[in-house]
């Protein structure tokens, strides 16, 4: 396809911070890739190679954050030549692509949810999207409906189900006065803890535990937006270890 205008829209939700949402490329150096990177949305676009090479035409735009929250997010990409409107959850960002071309030449297939392995380093390092998509629309074509009715020919559908599986994790919400107390393990000489958390507050106590036999304690907290670990040991000279990240 050689297009001057493109409109691509879809909704997605995921618990993963990385993954290719869709990808297309051509023989003239053109490509378009929409993906999640560190839970942010990244659009990479190139409308072709000129005498200066493909890097000059490469355009990358990042928007959003914390998109791995397993809530539905909507995306609309509207392109007219080099003018792009990228809308994420009703927040629109306008930009112009680099280079000097107006047409997007996609000679190969367009893939949703991943990209085919092309032998290029970029295709090897990218993860497939893991999550749910709905109402995928590409230039007026309802891709979701066509895929479900097997009207996309030729097409390759791998491990696709037309339902959205909910994650099995059970979140716990804490307010300013709540806490969760669990029994310790006094006979263990190893202390290990892991959890996921999300908060808008810059300060707060995440975990506290006393060691047995009055040997000290361990504390994990958020201080000015940074996670800090404090280990107090009562029976040694250097009795406090502080780690901040």
From TrEMBL:
Q: Which InterPro entries match?
A: ConA-like_dom_sf, Laminin_G, Neurexin-related_CASP
Chain ranges of the Laminin G domain: 1-164
PROSITE patterns (UniProt xref): LAM_G_DOMAIN
In terms of PANTHER family, this protein maps to: CONTACTIN-ASSOCIATED PROTEIN-LIKE 2 (PTHR15036:SF33), PIKACHURIN-LIKE PROTEIN (PTHR15036)
For this entry, the protein name equals CNTP2 protein
Chain's gene name: Cntnap2_1
